[in-house]
Please model this.
Amino acid sequence: MTEQEQILKLREELHKHNYNYYVLNMPAIPDQEFDMMMHQLQDLEKLHPEMADPNSPTQRVGSDLNNEFTTIQHKRPMLSLANTYNRQEVSDFYERVKEGLQGAPFQICCELKFDGLSISLHYEHGRLVRAVTRGDGTQGDDVTQNVRTIKSIPLLLPQDGGYPEEFEIRGEVLMPWTSFERLNEQRAGKEEPLFANPRNAASGTLKSKNSIVVAERGLDAYLYYLLGDDIPVDGHYQNMEAARKWGFQVSKAMKLANTLQEVYDYIEYWDKERKNLPVATDGIVLKVNSLAQQKSLGITAKSPRWAIAYKFQAEQAETILRQVVFQVGRTGTITPVANMDPIQLSGTQVRRATLHNADVMAQLDLHVGDHILVEKGGEIIPKVVGKACPSESASPKINFIGYCPACGSKLIRYEGEAAHYCPNETGCPPLIVGKIEHFVSRKAMNIFSLGPEIVESYFEQGLINNPADLYTLRAEQLLNADKSNAISVNNILISIEESKKVPFERVLFAIGIRFVGEIAAKTLARYFGSMEKISTATLDKLIQVNGIGDVIANSIIKYFSDQKNISFIRRLKEYGLQMQISQEQQEAKSDRLADNSIVISGVFTHHSRDEYKALIEKHGGKNVGSISGKTSFILAGENMGPSKLEKAQKLGVRIMNEDEFLQLVGEV
Ligand code: IVH
Model:
């Protein structure tokens, strides 16, 4: 056998063993032997660079070449599913299907709803050619290189497997509980922010620019939807069974139901049993099994009529309340948190749960020693939802606090808001740190080398007491501060210096006026042009600005009536920060939308229709009234007309929402 033939043979065998190990969970050879074959293949591939193949089993380790994702239009839109939450809604769905099929017999394929991120895989002649994320449903990111590292996704299908020459298979990329816990432990060790749940972790990982990172994090994938022009048979279930034979990981939990009762039985069984699964699930998906029947039922604007998702209730457990502590957040919000006896919930051990705010706490009527019910939904922070039984404990009721536990200030509660706040913005430690963290953050002054830990440590050492102090820092001071070496000190000082060039609108956002977010800051900066004008604007004048209401306007007036803020801004100005918009910015034009015909439809939140028209023109585009094959895209707000939507879908014209549009023209 030539070396070239050996390479092909090794690849084929390794693909097979990979499938046995990762999909069937039935390794046919010892790990050592597998590793040996892999090394042999790696050596041979080095000798024969002409045989390089992105689908070789050796490529599953990833590459650290920078991975820029290109956007790819989905051949068929990736729709989402309508959600249901109870038996009645499931029964309504069943009845709708029955009616839609005019009494013809039908089967429902019941499946688990995997809680990860959806992926579309394209195969041509048995080879993986492309993997694309869902994106906005019409287009997504090309993540093929990262997906190649997921061991349960076949790169090459067995020859003569009976699969179509070209097909698409969709499924969910997931991070199994074990990988998730390992990853968060590692991150906690490095003081990096934790992922809230396996879904976020999987999504963050799949979008990583470095496929070695993806390979290390142990992602998995389940496939649940086959599409193409030559699908083998009419049954969805049967096609998925076939896909399993071709090498895809298809859940064994799929089941065909002939009656509504069988659907209920399935839901009931998996609601309990899912706790033993290695991956997160958040419900059940019900699909009409026959593809012909699916076709005859059709789709609505967003989701198919032939399928629905039934969402599980969040998992609950009972434990004993030991103490309530009050946390002061970076914006001054006070959050009551229950410390309790540890319990297992959705695969992790839980000791703390949020009590949200004073109203929730009062309603729960808590006493130390109470048996409480804790629930964990999709997010990492569990919550207390009630008491298991009326309290028998003699300990007194736990009340909300009146004064800030960090600085002793009297707490306030804004009208119409549930939270209590510490108002001591310039004197309460967590608030000062929060203000500085906000100031340096990416979308504000972008002083990226100053992470939260460094900010906290500089504050604790008395080096900075407000954001303006950053501009007085000197190298000697920072070298004495813990954890900082000469290189990082230099980087910090450079990025502080660089921040002086950050445009005015971001300075306005960075100073942290309550309710003035990124968009409002941008709007105000463009309208008034300078800090001077904003700081002296009257309430009437502020309200005139599109997108600025009473709440924001009042907050601005209040901010500039405080002498401390005035001197803070004066200092920033002295240090050289931008206090007005640049001349070029005022006149800026671009040709980003050159040759684009754009239809505007619906109701918008960030700008008025006229402003969007002006923006389109400013960037070289043309605003047109009706949709045609020549329309480049539709800028769609809420409540876009159904006829327009239908026409757009028929002609395959892209629908872009406000945020995407603003991003496209660089106005975010
Ligand atoms: S079928 C047109 N099956 O749930 C139907 N989706 O809201 C396409 N999902 O975006 C989806 N498990 O990410 C289908 N067994 C399953 C699923 C599933 C999870 C996700 C998928 C989809 C979302 C629908």
About this structure: The radius of gyration is 29 Å. The first helix runs from residue 3 to 22. The chain has six domains: 3-61, 83-311, 316-387, 429-501, 504-586, 591-664.
